[in-house]
Amino acid sequence: MSDKNTDRRVLLIDLDGVIYQGGELIDGAIEALDWIRQRRIPYLFVTNTTSRPRAALLEKFQALGFSAQLDEIMTPVVAAAQWLEDHQKSSVALFVPPATQQDFLEVDAVALDRDRPVDAVVVGDLGETWDFQLLNRAFQFLMQDPQPQLIALGMTRYWRGKNGLQLDVAPFIKALEHAASCEAVVVGKPACAFFEASLARLQAGAEQALMIGDDIVGDVDAAQRCGIRGILVKTGKFRVSDLDGAIKPFALLDSIAALPGWWESTQDRRQ
What does the DSSP assignment read for the chain? Predict the structure, then answer.
C-alpha cells in the first residue's frame, strides 16, 4: 500500500445520537456533513437501527433536511441478509418490524404462527411490540431440532428516545441465549464482522478508520476492539460517567459539529 493510501482516512458515522436525536437534528450536523463531503472524505453511516428499512431512513433524512444515498447506509439488516445468503440459510423466522422485512426479500420468511422448521431466527429491535408471547415464540423456534441459528441485528443495550433511555435488542438476545442454550451470531455493532463489512465497502483498513458515536461501549469500545479509533461525542446517550471507566476514546468532541475543527488541528500535527 502506498504512503498516500496509508494516510487516507475514512469515517464511520453513527446516526441516532450523533446526526439526530429522535426527530431533531443535532446542531451543526448538516454543516459537518457538508464539510466531510466537500473534503471528499470517504464515509459510511453505520447504524444498528432495525426498526425501519434503509428506504425509510432516507425518507427521514430528507424530512430532517439532509440527503444521503442508499449505498451510504450500512445496517445490520444488510449484513444479516448477506450472512444468510453466504451460509445458505433460506427458511427464516423474522422477529423484526414489518417494514424492515422488505430488506429480507431473498429469504423464505416463515409466518410466526406456523410450526415449520427454520434455518435461522433473526431478532431485531421490536421496541414496545415485545411481550411474553412474542419472546416465547422466538424461544420455541430456537428449541427446534436441529436448532436454528440465532442472529442478532446488533447488541446495543439501550438508546435515548423522547421518553428517556429505552431497552434495545441486546437484553432480549441475552434472554434467548440463556433460555435456549445457544449463542447468537451478531451482525450489527459491536461485532467486528459488522465493522469489517463496513470497511470493505469503503475499501479501507481498520488503521485508516475513525468511528464517531455516542455510545462508549457499543460505538467506541466496539470499534477500538476491532482496531478502529473511536471518537465519542457528548450528544445522544452520552453521560459524564462514561469517562470514568476503563474505555478511553481516541478523541472526545462536544458534538459532530466540532469534527471539522478537530480534524484540521490533527491534520496540522500530521504534517
Answer: --HHHHH--EEEE--BTTTEETTEEPTTHHHHHHHHHHTT--EEEE----SS-HHHHHHHHHHHT----GGGEE-HHHHHHHHHHHTT--EEEEES-GGGGGG-TTSEE--TTS----SEEEE---GGG--HHHHHHHHHHHTSSSPPEEEES----EEEETTEEEE-SHHHHHHHHHHHT--PEE-STT-HHHHHHHHHHHT--GGGEEEEES-IIIIIIHHHHTT-EEEEESSTT--GGGGGSS---SEEESSGGGHHHHHHHHHHHH-
- CA 186 to chain centroid, in Å, comes to 11
Domain 79-186: give its CATH code.
3.40.50.1000
Domain ranges of the chain: 7-48+204-270, 79-186
C-alpha closest to that of 127 among 216, 45, 213, 50: 50
Q: pTM of the entire structure?
A: 0.77
pLDDT per residue, tens digit, the chain (271 aa), is 333 355 689 999 999 999 998 789 999 999 999 999 999 999 999 998 887 888 888 898 888 988 889 899 999 998 898 889 889 998 999 999 988 888 888 889 999 998 899 999 999 989 899 999 999 999 999 999 999 999 999 888 888 777 888 898 999 999 999 999 999 999 988 889 899 989 989 999 999 999 999 999 999 999 999 999 999 999 999 999 999 999 999 999 999 999 999 999 987 555 4
Q: In degrees rounded to 5, what are phi and psi of residue 139? A: -60, -45
C-alpha cell belonging to residue 51:
426498526
CATH 3.40.50.1000 assigned to domain 7-48+204-270? The reply is: yes
